[in-house]
Amino acid sequence: KVDYDVCSNYGNWLYSAGIGNDPRDNRKFNMIKQGLDYDGNGDYVRLWVPELQGVKGADVHSPWALSGAALSQVGVTLGDTYPQPVVTAPEWSRHINQRPQGPSPHPRGRRGPAPAPVQHRGIDFYFSRKKDV
């Protein structure tokens, strides 16, 4: 199953590019951190990038950081069977070779406490007779 929502996806891409709401200077999408948070074992990457089928675990999120011997063992040659990275932002370095801490209890894959539920007034507030809510 492919998860696709046109508005959400385009909005997130624009936000990551720094031209959406709340644009901040020097925004860089950290693909390695996102991969570790949402696809810790790399199954999604291996599904859509068959060239990396042999790369085990989270290493699939940064194959360029593997040794030549490790790449050779799984049949990957950077610049030939898999492209060299176009950009490697300095901010990514702390996530390269990091291992996920096991399955995340957070429904979207993030670690840490779940946010408190948001209290909405809802439509009943506007149409109920009682206005002291």
From TrEMBL:
Flavoprotein is among the record's keywords: yes
Record-linked InterPro entries: Crypto/Photolyase_FAD-like_sf, Cryptochr/Photolyase_FAD-bd, Cryptochrome/DNA_photolyase_1
PANTHER family in UniProt: CRYPTOCHROME, CRYPTOCHROME DASH
Cofactor(s) this protein requires: FAD
Annotated stretches, region: Disordered: 89-121
Single GO MF annotation: FAD binding
Official protein name in the record: CRYD protein
Coiled-coil residue windows: none
Keywords noted in UniProt: FAD, Flavoprotein
Family that this chain belongs to: Belongs to the DNA photolyase class-1 family.
Residue ranges of every copy of the Cryptochrome/DNA photolyase FAD-binding domain listed in the record: 2-97
GO BP: photoreactive repair
Binding site for FAD: D3, Y4, D5
SUPFAM superfamilies: Cryptochrome/photolyase FAD-binding domain
Keyword Flavoprotein attached: yes
